[in-house]
Design goal:
about 120 residues; single chain; about 0% strand; mainly alpha; 5 helices
């Protein structure tokens, strides 16, 4: 998985260099991944202390938005949400969906033009 994350980071760098993504996409992605990891940590603490939990849908949305590397790292390091099969299935769907959306944005110019005009 570390190879996939490294390839993703390289793709993001390439996309910024080619002006397919704005420069601020890199720091936003970094912060999003830190925030995702932190949210997993907060949820793990809440689970251990019996406090209010972060909804799984929020964690999945963070992964879909681009925080999936941080989510994967949190699952490995914190051992949180790493054994619940239904959560892991949806997590991998979000990783795949994010990859497909990013790929469509980068490699299908008509989509990028129409979405850029809409945004």
């Amino acid at each position: 998985m570390l190879i996939v994350i490294t390839a993703y980071a390289g793709l993001m760098l390439w996309a910024v260099w080619r002006s397919l993504l704005p420069w601020w996409a890199l720091p936003v992605s970094f912060v999003l991944n830190l925030l995702t990891f932190w949210m997993y940590w907060v949820d793990k603490r809440a689970a251990q202390t019996g406090q209010w939990r972060t909804p799984e849908s929020t964690l999945q949305l963070m992964a879909l938005a681009g925080g999936w590397p941080g989510a994967w790292l949190a699952q490995q390091v914190l051992r949180h949400k790493s054994s619940k099969q239904s959560f892991r299935f949806v997590y991998w769907l979000t990783v795949l969906s994010h990859g497909l959306l990013l790929g469509a944005w980068l490699f299908w110019p008509p989509l990028r033009k129409s979405l850029a005009a809409w945004l």
